[in-house]
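$ run holo --ligand "manganese (II) ion" --emit tokens
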Amino acid sequence: MIVVLKENPNPRQLENLIQWLKSLNLDVHISSGSQQTVLGLVGDTTSVDIDLVRALDIVADVKRIQEPYKKANRRFHPQDTIIQIAEGISIGGGNFQMIAGPCSVESPEQICEVAKAVKASGASILRGGAFKPRTSPYAFQGMHAEGIKLLLEAKAETGMPIITEIMDIGQLELFGEVDIIQVGARNMQNFELLKHLGRTGKPILLKRGLANTYQELLMSAEYIMSGGNEQIILCERGIRTFETFTRNTLDIAAVPVLKELSHLPVVIDPSHALGIARFVPTMAVAAVAAGCDGLMIEVHNDPPHAKCDGPQSIRPEAFDVLAKRVKAMRQLVTSLEG
Ligand code: PEP
Ligand code: MN
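-- output --
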């Protein structure tokens, strides 16, 4: 249920209302915008007399909402969420960031070379997997703790904040200096992992599962948010369809739909969606045209010899061209919005 307040509500009456709602065992989520204050009520609202609340002096409107996600819901929180990743780097609410780097960290030289190259082209956040969810148990599983150590060295050398994937909560102690924790598509509904991440204070990039709906993605975000961590970045990375030419099908509609349903930033990962490097730049530009808040792009200095996802990894030179096109499209989108 949401309670929309009139402009400049009397503070004492507002406090009384909040205390009364809390006494009904409801969590009251207050969202104060420049124009309007909205109270989002989370919990069992069946005992709330909607007409009584509507009749209060300070209340403009009361609405029961159908969606099971509350904290991720834009109705509760009309303003875009802006997530601060590092000094001067935030995402959401008009702040756009490019995340780039290899699928997996493979060596000190590889991660540092790619980091420097993508930074020079305009990427602001470095990616690199240390724990890899591979379909085959015989495939490269990542460098684990050593991979995170190498990412941290690249961070120290370039100043770029880093993002890497967690697969199990037992790995969390290694993530102390990681700036964004990634939850991969395969773990989107690992609810125990999500609950634990809800108790961390770190931004989480939550990837949409291979066969999950928008609502399921938002419910997974809700798991993390209900634990107290509201810094979630949603990521569309392609879904399974009948098409087999591309690795997955990039659902660009996820951008406007998720941004309407939720206030959380939305990032597009065209690399895992397409699975074919030459299509990645086009779809990156398309995602920007659709209004995404960021991109995640796999970049490798030697794709044919990559230990993971070489076919979809673009070279640093191709990333440089992509970044220029993205910049041009961002300018166009911003000018159209303005
Ligand atoms: C990745 O980003 O390297 C990855 C494994 O992605 P996804 O979970 O989307 O497959
Ligand atoms: Mn990958």
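-- notes --
The domain at 83-337 is CATH 3.20.20.70 (TIM Barrel).
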